[in-house]
Amino acid sequence: MGTTRPGLEATEGELIERARQGDKDAFYRLVFPCERAVYTAAVSILNNSADAEEAAQEAVLKAFTNLVGFRGEAKFSTWLIQITINEARLKLRKDRRHLYESVDEQRADDEGEYSPKDFADWREVPSEALQRRELREALKQAIANLPSIYREVLILRDVQQRSIKETAQILGLTEGSVKTRLLRARLQMRDALAPGIDGTWATGKAEYKKVRPF
Amino acid sequence: MKVIEISCLEVWREISNYIDGDLDAELRARMEAHFRVCAHCKAVVDGTRNVVKLIADGVEYALPDGFSQRLFDKLKDK
Fold this sequence. Notes:
The structure holds 2 protein chains of 2 kinds.
Chain A: H1 12-20, H2 24-31, H3 35-46, H4 49-65, H5 76-94, H6 105-108, H7 132-145, H8 148-159, H9 164-171, H10 175-193
Helix pairs in contact in A: 1-2, 3-4, 3-5, 3-8, 4-5, 5-9, 8-10, 9-10
Chain B: H1 8-19, H2 25-37, H3 39-58, H4 67-77
Helix pairs in contact in B: 1-3, 2-3
């Protein structure tokens, strides 16, 4: 009888309570399962490993200090990732790199059109070029080359498979803005990776399809 | 019921939602009719769908070696 649970399992709620009392081990047990998500979120904004790790650490420390502010309305991981995103954005603003990005955040959500490329110079794509590892590198490079406001959305939605709603919540955007940025991110990715992407990269066939010009 | 045509511009605007299955049936039908007659837009939707799938299957950001330990140490030192 009673409410004691068998074994050593503590619920998220119990861990949070203990962490609020200053129990760092309990707090780390909350953080540990989120590490990859936290790091990835920081990378999505800062685009390099060292800065992302720094931002992740700062976010975790801030979260620990501000546990009183966590009211349990969202999942702990969502809350922690939001703090990480904010920390990474702060870091980005301090860094002069962002000054060289040409995408105006205000304009980004306007109705302005993005025209996907029409690849006129079709080439035959040899199957040797489609090795998994090369492709993974090409994908990561293309993602790194996106403007950060598109990259954030693409990573949360398409890399981490979060819903539009959760992505919007984490980034503090409307769902409409998320969808617009996601559209542009995806079209730019296609532009960066084609030709070949339209027919052959996903099939893994030994022989290649020759794409007809039109 | 006659399906009303849409322009390529409208298609490009909705292509991401189409891939995610996030459109009402009428708009979906219009886009599918468009893909049947427009090779360029068909190429765009196929390519974009491929990209989304490749990203989902192939991209991950591995934690740097020692990340967890360094994070734990930072927390302890605080």
